[in-house]
Amino acid sequence: MRTVGVEEELLLVDPESGDPRAVAAAILAQAAHDDPGQDVFDEELFGQMLEFATHPQSDMAALSEEIVRCRKEAARHAGQFGCAVAALAASPLPVDPLLTVNERYAWLAERFGVGTRDQLVCGCHVHVAVESDEEGVAVLDRLRPWLPALVAISANSPFWQGSDTGYASYRTRVWERWPSAGPTELFVSPERYHRRVRDMMATGVILDEAMAYFDARLSAHCPTVEIRVADVCLCAQTAVLVATLTRALVETAARDWRAGRPPPDHSVSVLRLGAWQAARSGMDQDLLDPVTMRPRPAPEVLRALLEYTGDALTACGDAERAEQGLTELLRRGNGARQQRRLLERAGSLRGVVTECVRHTQG
Predict the structure, then answer these.
(1) Residues near 136 by Cβ (< 8 Å), separated by ≥ 6?
(2) Which CATH fold topology does 4-361 show?
(3) Which SUPFAM superfamilies does the record match to this protein (predicted)?
(4) Which one, out of 47, 128, 208, 332, has a CA that is 20 to 30 A from the CA of 104?
């Protein structure tokens, strides 16, 4: 059974005002002091962000427990500095990002200017084990049209700098400002994949391999594919649903490859439109059908995802979990829908943030 690991980026906020606070360096120093061997928490581009990474898990119940535990540990560390953590993919309140002191981040800020300052956004990255680069590239080629469905499920960034953007996932629109981000052409082989990355690096526009910000890519550090499209999810169980469906997509794509079924040959232009549509409306309107690339009601596309990955979900023992998780999500709504409802009740974006702090650990 393929192992899965999840990386989540959390927003550090004042628990009373909801304003983002740049205390990540202090939190990480204290965490390292308390537990010198800890390998869970890490710095991110800005001081208002804290990242954690789970260990590889083959059982989704164990992954769920670890995500919840990591969120609570992050909250405990932040609490030592009068701070809280919120699983928000973008700050609803205006914020002046504070760049983390780091040579790499300084290069990004100098190279990309104001575009770097806009990147105070929090994502959820899912790593799924693959047997080889050959299998990994075959998976990447076959995942492409289904990735917007994961955006719709995870969408959790409707507000930006104090205003409603009209998007469910504005984070993904901000992230697309990096010149190396977004959907990719078919790679076909590991040789072509690695040559593409080398060619991008040779332009001098990006710093290194880690800046190949594809929607899905081969990990440079471990034998996994890394799917990078999801917002950090407000509720931990939504993150588990994203991880569950991602593993099933990887397994289904690998089976299709072994069976000799070719990947869908959708153009990058159309894939970009599918990603935009998912970011704009989330689960509330149409998505583009991954097969036809024509509009189809979002719940039907998400049910089609369950059907497409059904055999893999069953083989992993995840079919019931995925069915229940999706049914609950369609009833409750993704993070974007929940944030907008919170605004109606709380009457202010500050109230939204403080309520999301509670939801992050709920």
Answers:
(1) 130, 190, 218, 223, 224, 225
(2) Creatine Kinase; Chain A, domain 2 (3.30.590)
(3) Glutamine synthetase/guanido kinase (SSF55931)
(4) 128
